[in-house]
Amino acid sequence: MTIALCTTSHSPLMGKNDPDPDVRAEVDQALAAAREFVAAFDPELVVLFAPDHYNGFLYEVMPSFCVGAAATSIGDYGTPAGPLHVDRDAAYAILGRCLASGLDLALSEDMRVDHGFVQPLTFLFDRIDAVPVVPLFLNCVAEPLGPAVRSRLLGGAVGEALTAMGTRTLVIGSGGLSHDPPVPRLAEAPPAVAERLTHGRNPTPEQRAERESGTVAAAARFAAGTTDFRPLNPAWDTLVLDALAAGDFAAVDGHDADWFVREAGHSAHEVRTWIAAYAALAQQGRFTVTSRYYRPIPEWFTGFAVTTAVEAQ
User: Fold this and answer.
1) Number of neighbouring beta carbons within 10 Å of residue 29
2) What tens digit of pLDDT does each residue of 149-182 get?
3) What class does CATH assign to 3-311?
4) Catalytic site residue from 53, 179, 266, 269
5) What pTM was estimated for this model as a whole?
6) Is 199 a residue of the active site?
7) Is 115 among the catalytic positions?
């Protein structure tokens, strides 16, 4: 067995606007089980598919996909800041395979990553630099978005690269599920916000604190039912989890981009990271989902899920 998978939701609101203690304990138990799964697999490499939230990638240049040959966490929402332990050779091997497959995968020699990349590493490992990693950014926020099936094609090409490398690799998909937090949209943004979405790469600590506190306050209102944010959609979340477990990718990525928004909110596009991760695993052949946890958690603005999977024996 050379490839295993762990997909997990993330939320910057964890520890800042928590649900009831029994729910938080349930999530912690699911993440602890995933951590044990990963420890038993003992990966030599991690390939991490994740989104960004206008921290590392802005409209100044917004690729659909980008691989990092070096990466640094910005430390938003109290997550650890500093460099990731990026395997540069593996990043270039994956880049080469994707380009040869006809995928326009951009390259960064100085990728800046936020909680979407960092939280899975903190969930599963002691430190953000504890294991060699290849960070793979998927645009899941900035419209216009390409068809979701391209995430499957990306995952398949990455899976081919991993087969050729023969390295014991954990693939991680970070994000989702149903999810419509107050992330600004360029088409509706006032001039000051549009400028930030285009050029606001290095906010002051005060600016970042103001934005983060606004998100925490919005989540508290959402959980109390006093906002008009789109509700979570457990039925859609279940459809996604069932389809990926069955390898029925078309049930999710066969739809246009508007379907994700209608069914589960603008940030439901983060399940593209899960599609890519499962596609990388499926490239090896049949696979088995070994664990699955799900609960809608409005305090975190997300349908929260964790799954693990391995190649079928």
Assistant:
1) 12
2) 999 999 999 999 999 999 999 999 999 899 998 8
3) alpha beta
4) 179
5) 0.96
6) no
7) yes
